[in-house]
Specification:
Elements lengths: L4 E2 L4 H17 L4 H11 L7 E4 L4 E9 L2 E9 L5 H10 L4 E6 L11 E9 L10 E5 L5 H18 L5 H15 L9 E8 L2 E13 L2 E9 L8 H15 L4 E7 L3 H9 L3 E10 L1
Parallel strand pairs: 4-5, 10-11
Antiparallel strand pairs: 1-2, 2-3, 3-4, 5-12, 6-11, 6-12, 7-8, 8-9, 9-10
């Protein structure tokens, strides 16, 4: 790996990198506006990345502070056997954990544990709710209890994925809920639902319309534990599609944490493809 050198002029690499990222999103079925919006997210902070080459390909790395920890990120890797150099660079810059964002397969990072996935699928043009299921808006009076349950579940998901300790997961939860719901129940663009069967509430949904061009983001489509295993998971997906079209969007997107194999199998079977995958390893 001695032939790898850091480059000062990143223009050639950057142009090729952005083209590859766009191509990956287009291949995943994203519209052009959506692909470009996702590219903007993928290159956030790019001016601070370090880029290196061995003459045959590229490595792009960086470090950032995340909930009080220094985290290394491998943003690009097309150098054969270049992972060791990238990991060493991250370690030398204080990182104790290295993360990657992947589109189109794990590649050289198949041994990195999956911490999360972004899944997406086009919603049916006229989605119908399953027979026997009704949907209503969550009331403002129900919101505090719903919020407490969502926060507890979110913290548990983060910890189960192996990404953070319980204390840091709680801090991240506080930050994320404050960012996405700054006005709580009345936050514009957000809708909260309760779905019921046989006169009983069996789950809830939280979506954000217009999250990205043409996309409704499903922050939560939750079936209550006592009603799991009864087919309501698929029903929750149908509610998400219905809500997507209610909000005027064309596709539904959501995150699933690593370690939630049951949910991943459900999403595979209902056609929600992996758009981005996030993996990480402790150095």
């Amino acid at each position: 790996m001695n032939g790898i050198q850091i480059v000062a002029d990143q223009d050639v690499w950057r142009s090729g990198f952005e083209d590859r990222v766009l191509a990956g999103y287009r291949a995943a079925g994203c519209s052009e506006p959506l692909a470009r919006a996702l590219l903007e997210r993928a290159v956030e902070g790019i001016d601070g990345w370090t880029v290196a080459t061995d003459g045959t390909g590229w490595i792009a790395v960086g470090v950032t502070e995340d909930n009080g920890a220094t985290v290394g990120r491998i943003h690009d890797l097309t150098v054969p056997e270049g992972r060791a150099w990238a990991e060493r660079w991250c370690a030398e810059h204080g990182a104790r954990r290295v993360e990657v964002r992947l589109t189109g397969g794990a590649g050289a990072f198949a041994d990195y544990p999956v911490r999360g996935q972004i899944r997406m699928r086009a919603a049916a043009e006229r989605p119908e709710l399953p027979s026997g299921l009704t949907v209503r808006r969550l009331t403002e009076e129900e919101y505090p209890g719903w919020y407490a349950g969502e926060e507890a579940a979110y913290i548990a998901d983060i910890v189960r994925a192996g990404a953070l300790t319980p204390e840091k997961a709680r801090a991240k939860s506080d930050q994320d809920f404050a960012r996405y719901l700054p006005q709580g129940y009345l936050t514009p663009g957000h809708a909260f639902y309760v779905f019921e069967a046989e006169g009983r509430a069996v789950g809830t949904g939280w979506v954000n319309h217009g999250f990205l061009p043409g996309v409704t983001f499903g922050f939560s489509l939750e079936v209550y534990e006592e009603h799991r295993g009864k087919g309501y998971g698929r029903a929750a997906m149908a509610v998400g599609e219905w809500a997507t079209r209610q909000g005027g969007d064309e596709a539904m997107m959501f995150n699933v944490f690593g370690g939630n194999d049951t949910a991943m199998r459900l999403y595979d079977s209902t056609g929600f493809a992996v758009l981005d995958e996030f993996r990480s390893v402790v150095l």
